[in-house]
Amino acid sequence: MAITQKSRWDDVGSEPPAGSAKYAAGEQPIAEYDNWFNYSVTQDIAALIVDALKITERWGEFVLTGLLVHEAATPDMSVVVDPGIAYVDEKRAVVDAATTLTVPAADATYDRIDIVVIYGDGTLEYIAGTPAATPAEPDVPAGAYKLASVYVAAGATAITNADITDTRNVLIGIAQGNLDMNGKAILNAAIPCIFTLSKGYATAATVTETVETLKQEVAADKNYIYLVDSIHVVATNPAGSGCTLYFMLRALLSDGAEVDLLDAAEGVAEGGSFDDILIHLMSKIPNGEKIKAVRLYAYCDLAPAAGYEPSVQLEKVTGVQN
Predict the structure, then answer these.
(1) Fewer C-beta neighbours within 10 Å, C or N terminus of the chain?
(2) Share of residues in the chain with pLDDT > 70 (%)
């Protein structure tokens, strides 16, 4: 009788018996043993990656991938948490499937702020705040990590994405798809989407403003910049401009705030230029924050003479993004 064998890498498979017995026809299909081995190895590798990131990076507790909290398909008094993986309380927390959490009924008079948390064992919890004229979030329980806050307006009958604030510190994106390797199907493979960042502007921007103005910006292609390795800035202030050029580099963070990447604005005197690659800038970023973009601001202390305007260029930003 023919033996049906599976070749999906997302199957757990069967652990082979102990000892050195040889495979015999009619026994457990050998591919099932292969599946067990592949699954075990990939799980070990995934755990090692998380451990390495925990040790070598500065993220503290973080979401490795997924776990986005969002509205239901038809908005009601519930929220949905996508499947994903987090590193919480020194444990690898896994949520295998989308999970719906019930939102307690809104107060008739006062607004409320709730939170959604995950624990190290993968348990999700929706924690309601206290209705008040000026509501505040409830405390995050020990051993939990906050995924989102949810604003529940007085009398609300449905929660939409506009009410949900994403608070995840996401480290790695995951692409799901069907792959083919040497003619063998690999279904539902999960591939970490960490990419190099190497982009900038081929031309300079003219500076005529006497107040600090955003001139150029380099943003992540999809989500966030996780590491800025270097920034190449070029600035030129031609003789005859009659002014001093100043520029500043800032990082735009995920919460919309900006952080100076230089200790002070860099000045370029009339007839001077600046052309340098700046490094060691990540120390300026607060712990656990994500970078949305690197921005170049500039201004002149006096209005420059026509035809002699200074210029600045964010020539290249290198690093890691997802």
Answers:
(1) N
(2) 72
